[in-house]
Amino acid sequence: MILVTGGAGYIGSHTVRELRERGMDVVVYDNLSTGHIESIGDTPFVKGDLFDVELLRKTFREYGVDSVIHFAAYSLVGESMVNPAKYYHNNVAGTLALLDAMLAENVKYLVFSSSAATYGDCGDGLITENSPQNPTSVYGQTKLMMEQFMQDYDKAYGMKYVALRYFNAAGAHASGEIGEAHNPESHLIPLILQVSNGKREQINIFGDDYPTHDGTCIRDYIHITDLADAHIKALEYLKNGGKSTYYNLGNGNGFSVKEVIDTVEKVVGSPVKKQVVERRPGDPASLVASSEKIQKELGWKPKYDTLDSIVASAWKWHSTHLDGFNK
Ligand code: UFG
Fold this sequence. Notes:
Elements: E1 2-5, H1 10-21, E2 26-30, E3 45-47, H2 53-63, E4 67-70, H3 77-82, H4 84-104, E5 109-115, E6 126-127, H5 138-157, E7 160-166, E8 168-170, H6 188-196, E9 203-206, E10 218-219, E11 221-223, H7 224-239, E12 245-249, E13 255-256, H8 257-268, E14 274-277, E15 286-289, H9 292-298, H10 307-318
Parallel strand pairs: 1-2, 1-4, 2-3, 4-5, 5-7, 6-15, 7-12, 8-11, 9-14, 10-15
Antiparallel strand pairs: 10-13
Bound molecules: uridine-5'-diphosphate-4-deoxy-4-fluoro-alpha-D-galactose.
C-alpha cells in the first residue's frame, strides 16, 4: 500500500490516477490547503497535515502502508522569497515530521518530489545530476534541504529514497478529466490557455532581454503523466532493492516563452494577445534537463516528447474546465 502525501494536488493527483490505472493500492493523505478532493475520485483519502505524526502513524498502520510518495509542499518560487517562514515550516519541518512517522512505523521507501529549482542558475547547457546545486530561491533551498535529510536518514536508518528533480511540469491527463488548477494561477502554459479560453485578456511576457535566442526565458516542459510514470518506476526500483538516488526529469528540449505562446496559438488555432513587461525577479534565463540517467538506469522515456502534444493535452482540460474543479 502506497501513501501519497499531497495526492490531491496537480502532480499528486495525476500520479494517483496512474497508480490506480496500473492496479496499485493507494491512500491519499492531503490537508486540502491547495489540493482538490474532486481530482482523486473514489481513492481512499485521509484529510491530515504533515505535522500530525499521530494521524500519519495511525494511517500507516490502518492501511498497511509500506512506501510513501511525498508531494505535499508549497511550491511558488515568488511567494517563498517574501514568506520564507511558511516554506521552511511546511516544506522542511513538515517533511521531518513525515520522516519521523515513517521511522516509527518502519516504512522504508520514499519517492520524493524535488525540483530543478535546487540547481539555480547553471548557464545555458543541459543540466545533469552532477551540476552544482545552488538554489536561487527559498523554495529551491527547502527542496535541497529535504534531499539532504534523506541522505542522512538512509545512512543512519536505512530509509531508501529516490529524489526526482522535475523541470517544468505541464499538461493534463489524456481523459481531460483532471488537470492543472492553481488559485491564483502562476504557471505559463495555463495562463496562456486562459487567454485562449477567454478567461484572461492577455499574457504578460516577463522580460525579453535575457541572453537567449529571442530574449525570453527558456524552460524544459515535461508532461505530467510522464512524471507520474517516473514515480512508479522509482518506487518499483526501490522495492527491488535499488539504492537511494536522484534523477532529473525533463524532455531535454528548451522552449522560450515566445515559442510556448506560438505553440499555443498553433494548437488552439487562434491568436493570443501578449505584451512584454518587466522581468520577474529570480527567474534563471535557461533551465533544460539532461534526463539520461533515469533513461539509462530505470528505462524511463517520455511519451509526450513534443511541446505540441503537451499543450494539446492541457488545452483539452482548460477548454472544458474554465473554472478548474469548481462546478
Ligand atoms: N512567465 C511569463 N509570464 C507569465 C508566467 C510565466 O513570461 O505570466 C515565464 C517565466 O518568467 C518563466 C517561464 O514563463 O520564464 C515559466 O514560468 P513558470 O512560472 O510557469 O515556471 P517556473 O519556471 O518559474 O517554475 C516552475 C515551477 C517551480 C519549479 C521550477 C523549476 O513552478 O515550482 O519550475 O524549474 F521550481
